UniProtKB/TrEMBL annotation, chain A:
Segments traversing the membrane: 12-35, 55-80, 92-113, 133-155, 184-207, 219-240, 247-270
PANTHER family: ABC TRANSPORTER PERMEASE PROTEIN, BRANCHED-CHAIN AMINO ACID TRANSPORT SYSTEM PERMEASE PROTEIN LIVH
Family, per entry: Belongs to the binding-protein-dependent transport system permease family. LivHM subfamily.
Name of the molecule in the record: Branched-chain amino acid ABC transporter permease
Location(s) in or outside the cell: Cell membrane
Natural source organism: Jiella mangrovi
Membrane topology: Multi-pass membrane protein
InterPro entries: ABC_transp_permease, BCAA_transport_permease
Keywords from the UniProt entry: Amino-acid transport, Cell membrane, Membrane, Transmembrane, Transmembrane helix, Transport
Main location: membrane
UniProtKB/TrEMBL annotation, chain B:
Protein name in the entry: ABC transporter ATP-binding protein
Occurrences of domain ABC transporter (ranges): 13-242
Xref: InterPro entries: AAA+_ATPase, ABC_transporter-like_ATP-bd, ABC_transporter-like_CS, BCAA_Transport_ATP-bd_LivF, P-loop_NTPase
SMART domains, per the entry: AAA (SM00382)
Gene3D superfamilies: P-loop containing nucleotide triphosphate hydrolases (3.40.50.300)
Domain of life: Bacteria
Pfam family, one: ABC_tran
Keywords annotated in UniProt: Amino-acid transport, ATP-binding, Nucleotide-binding, Transport
PANTHER family cross-referenced by the UniProt entry: ABC TRANSPORTER ATP-BINDING PROTEIN, HIGH-AFFINITY BRANCHED-CHAIN AMINO ACID TRANSPORT ATP-BINDING PROTEIN LIVF
GO-annotated molecular function: ATP binding
Record family assignment: Belongs to the ABC transporter superfamily.
Species of the source: Jiella mangrovi
């Protein structure tokens, strides 16, 4: 029972961490970033490179975030910015980009499975069970991330500008806000979050060129259900992540793998606006 | 009249031969005027005559196909709106002009370049609209229509602009509120030498604040003159009726 509870909380935390980058890009840019899974993969390989080079495993996370931010800034400038007037093409472009990134990774690292060292290994005794320490770290990270994103959005000038751009881009521009820069920084931030998330989950999973793909699908469904809101995303992660763990435990892990997608479709059928909006 | 005769050397805003519109159809045609510091020019015209498009063209939201817009002598024609705004231009659009889901305070913060400036300048808002200062934490969308217009004008004032471009601020306001708006605009112009380009349909309001007027009809300026002139009201009435 304790294990089940911890599974639910840690799985939800993972989902939250992974979907956060997708959500902020959707919120500010009205863009579903289908390269999100590929960014996650890049984060995983960044972690692999860092620990393979003999650096401290804790460095994998900031290193992946930096790689992701730079990658995001370049992708926004080169691929997305020319397509802002054609939102559907921009979404397709991110899809294509995801494929290209996976191929480049395959070309450099091969198809095989890689590993990265874990900053913490072993188990911690909690609720009278020994539980994976790293999964518990992820809960702390998810809480910190939720707090940090809330602080960024609600207590900084960048956050205010970003919210203004979300609500009414032309009005924001007329008040001197450089919406192009807000978009660029947001995409960089979203990509940084995706890559950092990739590095954060590598201690639990093996790294391969398509490791991000199933996470892309789940994040996408989560964000559709949650809408653009941090508490909404937390709630959606708990609900859908919890359902996934329950189905995997009591029914079958295979069906558990599709729980999020199926349940999200059902929720959206009942509440087309998702959890956050009416 | 002096601005028209003396040329551009002192004018804050100078618009020359401006033509703009959507797709092939020009909405604003060959419009020229200039505004001096501390001067209020009102552009009058009925709906669909191109008043809002004129302001949007000055702000860079609508592309000018010919003509120029100069601010303090610098050419800003077809510049990006955010850079034009940062040159101390406060634009208050007619529709969707405030962020309904943000608080009053957040709306005001967006009027200044950095948050530090907000506290320094809160006195400006307090002097003009004390009611706005009382409602800083309230969501802007929950304000009454009149209060939203006060917030809109406050956001313009707090920018300490060189020029304000104001699109039909009097629309839908009760007479006492319209009088309050006129009072604030006149006080601002006198105190800070702010120039104002006002786009209006409300003739009494326009004449109570403006130094000069121009009539925009199907995108062209068909008449202009001194707002204080004795025959002005009758002439304008005539134009606006047709």
């Amino acid at each position: 029972m304790a294990t089940l509870l911890l599974d639910i909380v840690t799985t939800s935390s993972m989902l939250f961490i992974i979907a956060a980058g997708l959500m902020i890009i959707l919120g500010v840019m009205k863009l579903i970033n289908f390269a999100h899974g590929a960014f996650l993969t890049v984060g995983g390989y960044s972690a692999h490179v860092v620990t393979n080079a003999g650096f401290n495993a804790w460095l994998t996370i900031p290193a992946a975030a930096v790689v992701g931010f730079l990658l995001g800034i370049v992708v926004e400038r080169v691929i997305l910015r020319p397509l802002y007037d054609r939102p559907l093409d921009a979404i397709l472009a991110t899809w294509g980009l995801g494929i290209v990134i996976a191929q480049i990774i395959t070309f450099i690292f091969g198809r095989g499975v890689q590993f990265a060292e874990s900053p913490i290994s072993g188990t911690t005794d909690l609720l009278s069970v020994g539980y994976s320490s790293w999964r518990l770290v992820l809960v702390v990270v998810a809480l910190a991330l939720g707090a940090a994103l809330t602080a960024l959005l609600y207590y900084t000038r960048f956050g205010l500008n970003a919210r203004a751009v979300i609500m009414n881009e032309n009005l924001a521009r007329g008040l001197g806000i450089d919406s192009v820069r807000v978009r660029a920084v947001t995409f960089g931030l979203g990509a940084a979050l995706a890559c950092a998330a990739g590095a954060l989950i590598t201690p639990l999973l093996s790294i391969d060129p398509n490791m991000g793909l199933p996470w892309l699908v789940n994040s996408f469904m989560l964000v559709l259900v949650s809408g653009v809101a941090i508490p909404g995303l937390a709630l959606a992660s708990l609900l859908l992540g919890g359902a996934q763990v329950l189905v995997s435990t009591f029914v079958s892990p295979i069906i558990g793998g599709i729980t999020i997608v199926v349940l999200a479709a059902v929720i959206l059928r009942i509440r087309p606006g998702g959890l956050s909006r009416g | 009249m002096s601005a028209l005769l003396n040329g551009s050397s002192h004018s804050v805003l100078e618009v020359a031969g401006l033509t703009s519109g959507y797709d092939a159809a020009p909405v604003v045609r060959d419009v020229s005027f200039s505004i001096d510091p501390g001067e209020i020019l009102v552009i009058l015209g009925k709906n669909g005559m191109g008043k809002s498009t004129l302001l949007k063209t000055i702000m860079g939201f609508v592309r000018a196909s010919s003509g120029t817009v100069a601010l303090d002598g610098a050419d800003i024609t077809n510049g990006p709106p955010h850079l034009i705004a940062r040159r101390a231009v406060a634009y208050t659009p007619q529709e969707y002009a405030i962020f309904q889901d943000l608080t009053v305070a957040e709306n005001l913060r967006l009027g200044v370049e950095s948050d530090d400036l907000l506290e320094d300048r809160m006195g400006d808002v307090e002097a003009a609209f004390p009611r706005i200062v009382e409602r800083l934490r309230q969501r802007a969308g929950t304000l009454s229509g009149g209060e939203q217009k006060m917030l809109l004008l406050s956001r313009g004032l707090i920018a300490r602009p060189k020029i304000m471009l104001i699109d039909e601020i009097s629309e839908g306001l009760q007479p006492t509120m319209v009088a309050k708006m006129a009072e604030v605009l006149k006080a601002t112009k006198q105190k800070n030498g702010v120039a104002v380009l006002l786009v209006e349909q409300n003739l009494p309001f326009a004449l109570s604040v403006a130094d000069r007027y121009a009539i925009l009809k199907i995108g062209e300026i068909v008449a202009r003159g001194d707002a204080a002139h004795a025959d002005t009201a009758a002439t304008l009435e005539e134009h606006l009726r047709i």
